[in-house]
């Protein structure tokens, strides 16, 4: 037996205080493969940031240990009957070449088989194990709780935030589990299989929309509740759904209660025309006006369309495979795999469900980036085919609020998808569990987006982005 025996991690970190001590210490954990016996030494903080209870995951092939001397030095409460393990083979320690511990573990997360937990969390395993009827029942129960809260007409409370976050999170996971099962079925059989979940989700989304306004984005309470989830993907899906609704609510409020359109029109030539000329180069510069940016002019999103948008925001990433993380740069990921999630989501929603087509377009088009090469999605492929068949055809508008103009190639982008692009990018940049790069502070993220996604390459819409910045300023205003 080794001079410094190892003890199982679950026998010495059973309290929040113990976890905090281990996080602050910077110590590493010895990971032992159950079948092969191979060992790895990984920073506890890196593993914890990926999954807050990784050592309790019963589905991984790895066991986690801590040298007894480390546990004693940190005064961790070691169980009296904790077994001692002696490991004679060499323990491979990953070099600390980069400053961010979460970055140090990026190459071994897959090998440690925690990716399913990292991305979708153990909560997904719970949802996945439920029969279809129980998933529907859960959605119906959430709708009732949301409706009850709406009747109270009270400001945001912990109860209201808890119901909003839990229902949104579970609804996203229920849809992901159900639609991935539906992918194995024929289209008509799949539509019948998913119908209960689709109908219950749409009703729950309507109830959620009645409770969500722009103030939700400002509450740290909502943020803290979302961070309780132990999967990066489920946290992202929940945030984007609620914050996307919050921003869209702010947009509607600004349009209906202020002179938003006139204000933008006054500054359009000086502030925005240069951007949109890049998108509409075939038009005379003087013809590039606000009405060319928004087909039929800027308008509020009516209630029915608002609900369609909300549904699309909720299911926008159901195509995410468990092995996919969120990225905003070019390094550290397989682009083909990343691109595939948009196509899977689009096909699943459009072919395997009776969700409104608007939801499918949001899922399929929310990384189009106005045709920039770094973006991806179906629309650019369809548009290229259309232009090949109709070489003289042009797109005379940047954005449309309606389905037909995007499907008929009159416009370059779909308004709800452009809204989601901005929220999606901002969330991935500021995600506290962000991998490959450290998370950015809100102001850093906004400056980065303006430089990389507007000024250097026009990917997101500049008018909508400026509205989003105003939306953020309301949140962080003293």
Number of strands: 7
- Write the CATH architecture name of the largest domain: Orthogonal Bundle
Report the end-to-end length measured between terminal Cα atoms.
60 Å
Q: From the alpha carbons, calculate the radius of gyration and give it in angstroms.
A: 24 Å
Main β-sheet, spatial strand arrangement: 1-4-2-3-5
Low-confidence stretches: 88-118, 322-333
Number of domains: 2
Beta fraction: 5-15%
- Helical/strand content category: alpha/beta
Instruction: Indicate the mean pLDDT.
Output: 82
Give, in order, the helices and strands. Answer: EHEEHEHEHHHHHHHHHHHHHHEHEHHH
Separate helix tally:
21
CATH fold group of the largest domain: Hypothetical protein af1432
The CATH class of the largest domain turns out to be Mainly Alpha
Main β sheet profile: 5 strands, mixed
Please tell me what the overall shape is.
Answer: globular
**Portion in helices:** 55-70%
**What is the assigned CATH homologous superfamily of the largest domain?**
Hypothetical protein af1432
């Amino acid at each position: 037996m080794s001079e410094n025996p190892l003890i199982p991690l679950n026998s010495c970190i059973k309290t929040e205080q113990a976890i905090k001590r281990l996080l602050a210490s910077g110590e590493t954990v010895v990971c032992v493969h159950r079948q092969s016996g191979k060992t790895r030494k990984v920073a506890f903080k890196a593993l914890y940031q990926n999954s807050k209870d990784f050592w309790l995951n019963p589905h991984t092939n790895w066991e986690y240990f801590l040298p007894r001397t480390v546990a004693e030095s940190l005064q961790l409460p070691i169980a009296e009957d904790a077994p001692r393990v002696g490991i004679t083979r060499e323990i491979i320690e990953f070099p600390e070449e980069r400053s961010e511990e979460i970055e140090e573990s990026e190459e071994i997360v897959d090998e440690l088989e925690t990716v399913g937990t990292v991305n979708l969390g153990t909560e997904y395993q719970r949802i996945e194990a439920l029969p279809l009827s129980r998933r529907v029942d859960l959605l119906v129960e959430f709708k009732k709780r949301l409706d009850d809260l709406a009747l109270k007409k009270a400001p945001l409370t912990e109860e209201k935030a808890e119901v909003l976050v839990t229902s949104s999170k579970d609804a996203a996971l229920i849809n992901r589990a159900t639609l991935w099962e539906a992918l194995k079925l024929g289209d008509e059989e799949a539509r019948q299989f998913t119908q209960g979940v689709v109908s219950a989700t749409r009703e729950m989304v309507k109830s959620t929309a009645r409770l969500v306004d722009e103030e939700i984005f400002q509450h740290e309470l909502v943020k803290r509740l979302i961070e309780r989830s132990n999967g990066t993907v489920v946290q992202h899906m929940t945030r984007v759904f609620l914050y996307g609704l919050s921003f869209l609510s702010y947009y509607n409020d600004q349009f209906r209660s202020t002179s938003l359109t006139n204000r933008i029109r006054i500054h359009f030539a000086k502030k925005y025309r240069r951007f949109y000329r890049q998108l509409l180069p075939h038009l005379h510069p003087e013809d590039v006006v606000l009405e060319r940016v928004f087909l039929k002019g800027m308008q509020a999103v009516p209630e029915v369309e608002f609900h369609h948008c909300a549904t699309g925001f909720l299911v926008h990433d159901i195509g995410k495979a468990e092995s996919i993380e969120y990225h905003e740069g070019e390094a550290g990921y397989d682009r083909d795999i990343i691109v595939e999630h948009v196509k899977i989501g689009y096909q699943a929603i459009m072919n395997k469900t009776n969700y409104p087509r608007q939801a499918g377009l949001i899922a399929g088009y929310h990384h189009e980036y106005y045709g920039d090469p770094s973006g991806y999605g179906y629309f650019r492929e369809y548009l290229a085919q259309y232009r090949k068949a109709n070489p003289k055809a042009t797109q005379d508008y940047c954005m449309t609020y309606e389905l037909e103009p995007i499907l008929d190639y009159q416009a370059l982008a779909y308004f709800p998808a452009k809204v989601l692009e901005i929220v999606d990018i901002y969330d991935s940049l500021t995600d506290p569990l962000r991998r490959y790069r450290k998370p950015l502070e809100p102001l850093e993220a906004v400056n980065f987006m303006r430089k990389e996604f507007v000024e250097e390459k026009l990917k997101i819409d500049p008018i909508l982005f400026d509205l989003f910045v105003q939306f953020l300023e309301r949140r962080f205003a003293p």
